[in-house]
Amino acid sequence: MSKIRQDDLIESVCDSLQFMSYFHPKDYIDAVHQAWQREESQAAKDAMAQILVNSRMCAQGKRPLCQDTGIVTVFVKVGMDAQWDAKLSLTDMINEGVRRAYNHPDNKLRASILADPAGARKNTGDNTPAVIHYEVVTGNKVEFEIAAKGGGSENKSKLAMLNPSDNIVDWVVKTVPTMGAGWCPPGMLGIGIGGTAEKAAVLAKQSLMAPVDIQQLKDRGPASRIEELRLEIFEKVNALGIGAQGLGGLTTVVDVKILDHPTHAASKPVAMIPNCAATRHAHFTLDGSGPALQTPPSLDDWPAISWDAGDGARRVNLDTVTPADAATWKPGETLLLSGTMLTGRDAAHKRLQSMLESGEALPEGVDFNGKFIYYVGPVDAVRDEVVGPAGPTTSTRMDKFTEMMLADYGLLGMIGKAERGEAGIDAIRKHKAVYLMAVGGAAYLVSKAIKQSRVVAFGDLGMEAIHEFVVEDMPVTVAVDATGESVHQTGPALWKGKLASGEVKPVYFR
Questions:
Q1: Which residues, 6 or more positions from 62, have their beta carbon under 8 angstroms from its beta carbon?
Q2: Residue 243: is it exposed, middle or buried by C-beta count within 10 angstroms (0-12/13-18/19+)?
């Protein structure tokens, strides 16, 4: 009988993670392209154009679609009759594949996994360990479904223990707006129904491994209650008008996936997990014949579209910009930023807060007065790169620090992803600051605007260190102006109203 070799398994896991880091699934590209063609909101259309252009660039350059290269989730079906030629456990083999993939010298991926999550939160340095789910099945093969799930979308996961009489669609439609846009729509919703709380969550995650096929389902018609739910949720979520990147528009989700499991008579567990614009998953089977390697797609699979900021974009020199200049920027306006900015994420902000409370001076080379901070944790550079993919992280996580950064450190503005929360907007309005939005899911495209990069503080924090970037024509949108007006509030409200009134019609379906 054929035996599954340790090296074959490790190589297959490594290859799949490298592959998915820079190749979108064709079904997702097709779905976003169709949505882009039919989108009537210019802001949403521009965001999807950046996602599609970024995707093609990554396929050509073999660099990550997103700077957040994810936490690895693996579903493994182990055949009861499988034979092994291995010294490591199956878990250790999988983690060795992850380790090699994330430290690959030609395409180094970002290490984002922290050990001791309730304590020291120290980076493991190689993105291990993976989250692994096992199922023992008949046969002699081992089947893998592997995903790399970004933190921005994972953090928007929802779980509810509904009453048996509660309506699932109502819960979803009520809950999706509370998720904001930090999950980087347009994407997919994975929904798990039944079992127990943890089973529903696992089902929701596993459902996202399936290809985008909502159009085929619409064409043939639903054959089960689950398929009816998929179509109903798809139409009602898109009718919310949230749109790409939460800017308002016709397409918020390109598909809805549902898996279910029998449950207790008193229960109706429902979990919902969104997949972001960096949809990453791969599938392979080991049968003892050697490694199972992914097949590269053709570049012809990507639409031949381009994106530019347009003639109306305003150029801004970050080295000379003043509060008076920033006060003239309008919500939704496109800016092209050039000059020097600093970066900072959660861990850096927390350390800055501790330094302020203890009266400690800022590190040499760090001065936020009149400056902009970019919420980013970039991928390490390879070859001749200045920096690796460097897209924005979810900005609401920094809301708790915004008053401090504006009042005590003199910050003028912030750049990040998606909406700001009430505390963040209140601080922006109070200090007449501004918040600018870069497109989540366009990390490689954004990195090309970064001409110089160096770590200036907190190097021990790894990807969360403070960098100094020198940028040239970095594209951003004014998301919250100096008066506190937010496009993430006005945009979705506008398009939800247009859809509800019939002024525009849902156009995703053919």
A1: 22, 106, 107
A2: buried
Higher pLDDT, 2 or 280: 280
Which among 212, 211, 202, 184 is positioned nearest to 271, based on CA atoms?
A: 202
Cβ neighbours for 357, distance < 8 A, ≥ 6 positions apart: none
What pLDDT does 312 receive? 86
Using one digit for the tens of pLDDT, what is the confidence trace for 56-66? Answer: 999 999 999 99
| Domain-located, residue 291 | no
Residue 6 located in a structural domain: no
Q: Clarify whether residues 338 and 482 are in a common domain.
A: yes
Sign, CA dihedral 164-166-171-172, equals positive
**Do 320 and 258 share a structural domain?**
no
381 & 483 share domain: yes
Predicted local confidence at residue 507, as pLDDT: 67
CA quadruple 356, 359, 364, 370: dihedral, nearest 10: 50
Number of domains within the chain: 2
Amino acid of residue 254: V
Q: What is the largest CA-CA distance in the chain?
A: 76
Which SS3 state, helix, strand or coil, does residue 360 take?
Answer: coil
Omega before 186 within 30 of 0, i.e. cis: yes
- What HEC string does 450-487 produce? EEEEEEEECHHHHHHCEEEEEEEEEEEEEEECCCCCEH
Same domain? For 356 and 269 the reply is no
Phi, psi dihedrals of residue 211, rounded to the nearest 5°: -75, 160
**Residue 143: beta bridge partners?**
77, 285
Q: What is the 8-class DSSP label of residue 438?
A: P
Annotate 399-414 with b (16+ C-beta within 10 A) or e (fewer). bbbbbbbbeebebbbb
- Write out the H or E segment, with its range, that includes residue 500: helix 487-501
Q: Cα angle vertex 351, ends 350, 354, to 5°? A: 90
pLDDT at 246 over 70: yes
* CA-to-CA dists, residue 120 to 154, 256, 457, 463, angstroms: 21, 37, 19, 16
346 shares its domain with 468: yes
Q: Where are the alpha helices (DSSP H) in 76-213?
A: 90-102, 151-154, 168-175, 197-207
Residue 457 domain boundaries: 314-492
- pLDDT tens for residues 115-152? 999 999 999 999 999 999 999 999 999 999 999 999 99
d(CA 391, CA 466): 15
Q: Would you call 31 helix, strand, or coil by DSSP?
A: helix
